[in-house]
User: What shape does this take?
Amino acid sequence: MNATTFGILKRPVVTEKSNRLREEYNQFVFEVAPAANKIEIRAAVEKLFNVPVTDVKTMMVRGRIKRFKRGYGKQPNWKKAIVTVEAGHSIDLFEGI
Assistant: This one.
């Protein structure tokens, strides 16, 4: 691994769509390090949450352009991972949400 396990997963993404994915398809959404690949993300989730991972999908999310006073600024790009966990398992981090 080129990064530590804790450096790969930055934060969970909690939106209406991610909640629907969690309830219907047992998928969990995380913001991850831009340099992390699918193998590292899978290993990090399995190690941190002790759940078997069946699939990992990643995508780069473009930062939005926002207006600041008299000019424009751009939010940074970030990487998102959708992690599918085996049926019957769950990540406890999302249960209280």
Notes: The chain has a mean pLDDT of 91.
